[in-house]
Amino acid sequence: MKEYIFGTGRRKTAVAQVRLQPGTGKVVLADKKGPVDSLAEAVSEPLKLLSVEKKYDLSIKLSGGGVQARLEAARLGVCRALEKANESFAKTLHKEGFLTRDPREKERKKPGLKRARRAPQWQKR
């Protein structure tokens, strides 16, 4: 039985479920949209920062959101899992800004407006 360390990352409507386990540095992405190469590169960024890219295997399941949101959600999930794996990683990751969740979400549409704040053009007659 394999023992995993889990980390969840979110950004806008994207969610990344990350499983981290000791291994050889293999990254498995379950993603149906977007370029997987840039995702794998961004996901391995925190691993390179801590110089542990050959010590852990990653399995990432992505859903929702766009390409950039998925990328940031995956990176946050990896960082959270690494933090659980070793408490001493937290300071370095936080200093680099990887452990900060971006709280910005899409604002809801209001009645009488075209979008959240965009009002119809004013008409004199």
Tell me about this structure.
It is a single chain. With 125 residues, the chain is of the alpha+beta class. The chain has one domain: 2-Layer Sandwich (Ribosomal Protein S5, domain 2). 32% of the residues lie in helices and 22% in strands. The protein contains four helices and four strands. A four-stranded mixed β-sheet has the order 1-2-4-3. A hairpin with a 2-residue loop joins strand 1 and strand 2. Helix 1 (36-43) runs parallel beside helix 3. The longest helix is centred in the middle third of the chain and has 19 residues, at 67-85. It is elongated. The model has no long low-confidence stretch (mean pLDDT 91).
The mean pLDDT is 91
Instruction: Tell me how many strands there are.
Output: 4
Outline, from the CA principal axes? elongated
Q: What is the percentage of strand-forming residues?
A: 15-25%
Put simply, the count of helices is 4
User: CATH class, please?
Assistant: Alpha Beta
Main structural class: alpha+beta
| CATH architectural name | 2-Layer Sandwich
- Structural domain count: 1
Terminal Cα separation, in Å? 73 Å
Report the radius of gyration as a whole number of Å.
Answer: 18 Å
Bin the helical content. Answer: 25-40%
Poorly predicted segments:
none
Q: Biggest sheet, open or closed, and with what strands and sense?
A: 4 strands, mixed
**Annotated CATH topology:** Ribosomal Protein S5, domain 2
Strand order of the largest sheet: 1-2-4-3
Assembly type of the chains comes to single chain
